[in-house]
Amino acid sequence: MTDAIAARTIHHGGCHCRRVRFEVDAPAVIDALDCNCSICRMTGFLHLIVPASRFRLVSGEDALADYRFNTGAARHLFCRHCGVKSFYVPRSHPDGYSVNVRCLDPGSVTGLRIVPFDDSDREAATAAVAHLSRD
User: Fold this and answer.
1) Mapping DSSP to helix (H, G, I), strand (E, B) and coil, where does residue 70 land?
2) Domain definitions of the chain by residue range
3) The sheet that has 111-117: what strands, in order across it?
């Protein structure tokens, strides 16, 4: 077992109205990607990308609305009640989830490092973080 696997904790989070709730297995110290694409920049989304096997939707599937634009590959999932996107399936990692670090409940994150993700050079930026959605 590697140190990274041993250091994982279960983070809980969700949307503002709490209809959508999830769990994610990730380190207590999080490296969050700060993407400068139009939607992430405008919404302030900080990405914690994990493989699908480390994400669990606990409640609120019926409260989610799907929004797609441009290529349609990314599945932006918003709570249709409060409008918060607490997680989604990113175009760069269709085999995983991107959780908004800002939507995690307080208490389980012990450290946060912000890592820039330059969407103007999407191919290079995606290649640099391709490992994040693998177990």
Assistant:
1) coil
2) 3-133
3) 64-67, 75-79, 87-89, 96-100, 47-51, 29-35, 111-117
Contact 90, 74 (CB under 8 A): yes
Tally Cβ neighbours within 10 Å of residue 125.
20
* 97: confidence class by pLDDT, cuts 50, 70, 90: very high
Q: Report the sign of the C-alpha dihedral through residues 26, 126, 96, 17, in that order.
A: positive
**Percent of the residues in the chain that have a pLDDT greater than 90, as a whole number:** 61
**How many C-beta atoms surround the C-beta of residue 129 within 10 A?**
16
Share the mean pLDDT of the chain.
Answer: 88
Q: What average pLDDT does range 92-119 have in this prediction?
A: 91
CATH second-level architecture of 3-133? Answer: Beta Complex (2.170)
Distance CA 11, CA 124 (A): 29
